[in-house]
Amino acid sequence: MFALTPVLVAVVCVLIVWIFKNADGSFERRRGEARARPGARPWVDEDLKDSTDLHQEEEDADECQEAEENVEHIPFSHTRYPEKEMVKRSQEFYELLNKRRSVRFISNEQVPMEVIDNVIKTAGTAPSGAHTEPWTFVAVKDPDMKHKIREIVEEEEEINYLKRMGQRWVTDLMKLRTNWIKEYLDTAPVLILIFKQVHGFTATGKRKVHYYNEISVSIACGVLLAALQNAGLVTVTTTPLNCGPRLRVLLSRPANEKLLMLLPVGYPSQEATVPDLKRKPLDQIMVTV
Question: Binning pLDDT at 50, 70 and 90, where does residue 13 land?
């Protein structure tokens, strides 16, 4: 009986190894099937993840954020309009923005740089967590630089459409007739790349927390879109997946900046078309309590 013990031990060991190998293979198959399923969750760009943490701890206790000096509070200057004018202004502003469309056919006609300066200054008026203003707007006019940006974006976008995005996402985009060819990155007179600063630096060079940096920069992007529409320019909001790191290096931006959005800006081309989409009515987007 005791002579069989080593044999039994060996058999048990073989069984354990066999069970673990099969379990691991099954897990890998399930993971592969999940990637292949049309309804699977699409790939997510790491640069687009919000790194804000309400309970963020500094990596080093010596790098504690320095308290800013007290800021003076001043009387608030406000312009109040009569109710009729309020209604008129709000209706006119709605009608202006309701004409905004995502335009992918952009003329190469130059736009006044003063206008670009003004719309970016307007975007910079957006609110931000603890007034950290965690945004950088990079305006690209140089044709060679625009073409390099296009090459990077199209290379990654082809992979996105064929692999990363998933069949459901690609199918949902079919009605817009989009693909990985982005001619407007060459033709648009200005490209505005919006970077979120995941953290900043104090005057002494220590790391400074940027609270809700992605939400803050997203609000600024919304203000920028409204400013462009108000100025009579068009754009299309693009978030090219997996392009952020390469574009950041190309544009010599620091490592604490992550690409959030890319806007080609200009006038619509004469042959420009847009899909005939309808916006949801008020009763589908507003709840009054």
Answer: low
